[in-house]
């Protein structure tokens, strides 16, 4: 792999540029990318040219750059986060249809919860969640569920602070956070009244993977009022149990009687049984994908 004179690989510097984009800044100019990445303008320009050629960034008519569609295409091939989203989607839709408010799926990412999906209604309560966006673990119900089951190093890092307050209700004291995490770990759900917005209540439960480990949280954001929230916890726990069962079925050997159909596609796709059987069938032997720009032989 080619390396810069300072010892940094080309790939690491390209990742610096890709990391410069954010939910709040999806379009950036050359000078903005240079400033945000800390790379010289000339280096930034050369790296962007290569990224654009590979469709990892796209340049608009106004000469700003945005992340390219090929990144999404590559991400969709992973059985990790997006495979989880695909398997969870039917159950998220069922909960969303019953409560009519926001329903979301999040995973642990460092000291944050990273949201893979959010289903909403136009007349639902205010919600700060954005797909691909993050919230601090201590400041959301989804984050509390994930943090409660995280490894000790992750918990200790967050507890060491600072614990940023988003509202007056956000947990900002480490001792209080420890007590809340203990309660969440015991009861297997979290309720966060007004942590992010005074009008909103977050509720979340854990989703377990094939080995019984917590891999995600399923949550809802509803009005922060006097309405009973225990029925919502029940609905979310039912959805989480179904998602967990689907994850286990996708991880079983295909010959196992409880395995879901679909062969190697089980961890990537959630579709009808007939579709999954077709994807796994011997008649559907797909040709290897050629990288962009490659010449078939």
TrEMBL record:
- What keywords were assigned to this record? DNA-binding, Transcription, Transcription regulation
Q: Carries keyword DNA-binding?
A: yes
The organism of origin for this protein? Agromyces fucosus
Q: Which Gene3D superfamilies does this entry report, sorted A to Z?
A: 3.30.450.40, Winged helix-like DNA-binding domain superfamily/Winged helix DNA-binding domain
Q: What is this protein called?
A: IclR family transcriptional regulator
Q: Where is this region: Disordered?
A: 276-297
According to the UniProt entry, its GO molecular function terms are: DNA binding; DNA-binding transcription factor activity
The record's listing under InterPro entries reads: GAF-like_dom_sf (IPR029016), HTH_MetabolicPath_Reg (IPR050707), Tscrpt_reg_IclR_C (IPR014757), Tscrpt_reg_IclR_N (IPR005471), WH-like_DNA-bd_sf (IPR036388), WH_DNA-bd_sf (IPR036390)
Q: Where is the HTH iclR-type domain?
A: 8-69
| Gene Ontology terms describing biological process | negative regulation of DNA-templated transcription
Q: Which PROSITE patterns match?
A: HTH_ICLR (PS51077), ICLR_ED (PS51078)
- Record has DNA-binding as a keyword: yes
Q: Which SUPFAM superfamilies match?
A: GAF domain-like (SSF55781), Winged helix' DNA-binding domain (SSF46785)
Outline the extent of the IclR-ED domain. 70-249
